[in-house]
Design brief:
mainly alpha, about 90% helix, about 0% strand
Length: about 170
């Protein structure tokens, strides 16, 4: 093999390695850029959900429904982004980060179910079907309680791995 061929192979190897490094860095940057958006949407969803409950108790059903829909939209947006991270960047995250994302996904799935139950309760209260509305509201409350357990679990993951989560990879 000539020295010219060896040089070409060496240069091509460097290019492939460089491209791989750039791809990995860009995927990690993409994840780190997306995490604050996910976090903000979850916080906004929680605020909207809590406001929806207060508005139901005040019998402001239209406003309550608007807040519930907004909460659902925020939760669904975060869930979609997390699933995207899992499907597109799973090789770039470690096991602890993967467990963290799975925990947040389970939390969001429960919160979305709770929003659906809350919306059903609003519809029932609107037509004076208070018994059924109360049952749906109770189911929503139970789902939020379960979601809170996953939220506590993800907080514990962060607490146990402060170096891993000290920068951006946290919701």
């Amino acid at each position: 093999m000539s020295s010219y061929s060896k040089l070409i192979i060496f240069v091509l190897s460097l290019l492939i390695i460089s491209a791989a490094i750039v791809f990995i860095d860009s995927s990690v940057d993409n994840i780190n850029k997306t995490m604050p958006e996910i976090s903000d949407a979850i916080v906004n969803g929680d605020n909207d959900y809590n406001e929806a409950v207060i508005l139901v108790n005040d019998r402001s059903f239209d406003e309550s429904m608007n807040k519930a829909v907004s909460a659902g939209d925020n939760y669904n947006s975060s869930l979609e982004k997390l699933r995207n991270i899992k499907s597109n960047f799973s090789s770039d995250i470690n096991e602890i980060q993967n467990d963290y994302i799975d925990t947040v996904i389970r939390e969001l799935e429960l919160k979305i179910q709770a929003v659906d139950k809350l919306k059903e309760s609003i519809e029932c209260f609107r037509v004076y079907s208070n018994y059924t509305g109360t049952n749906y509201a109770s189911e929503a409350n139970d789902l939020i309680y379960q979601a809170k357990q996953y939220q506590d679990q993800r907080d514990e993951i962060v607490k146990e791995n402060p170096k891993l989560f000290k920068d951006n990879f946290i919701i």
